[in-house]
Design a protein that fits this description.
Number of domains: 2
Helix content: 40-55%
Mean pLDDT: 78
Distance between the termini: 21 Å
Largest sheet: 5 strands, antiparallel
Amino acid sequence: MATMKNRIGGLFKKRKDAERANRALQKAGFQPEVISMLVRKPTIGPINRDRVTGPELGISAGIGALIVAVIGGFLGFLVGRGVIVLPGLEPRLVGLTLGFLLSAMLAGIVFGVLTGAILGTAIRLFISNEKVAITPLGIKRGGVLVVVSVNGVQSEESASQVLEENGAIDVENLTEKWDSKVWSSFQEVAFSRK
């Protein structure tokens, strides 16, 4: 791969889209030697590209549970102190005791954990079907990365535009992310000669 100033990368879901982008880049004046395609190295067994793993869901559920539990605990504290008045829990009816304060906080935390876990999981599932960022994980899940080595802002903009017009899920400047240790885990492949 030629060493130049900037590397613009476009992530594609399918190789045929990456091939089409390659042809469009060449038509736009980019030389074949500055365009490369990276895919995940072959593994044993099939890989499901769009699948979210159990650990990913667990982490998302845990983060959601933690965040909403803190909010729920705080709201429970406010209810227990009488700052927020709920029907049936007016301070004159229940009395503002330490027991009431703790039970209100506990109820807020439990409700927050349950709600946060559900929201965290739902958000993770929703995001997994949305835009995939150009990361090693995006390529490992079966994405195809087309990289164009360019000089100058005009070439950068032109390459980005061509990649976007040809169906790239995401396009960005990879110059700062270009770490040989990370990227060496992927295989550079030749474009078809159509």
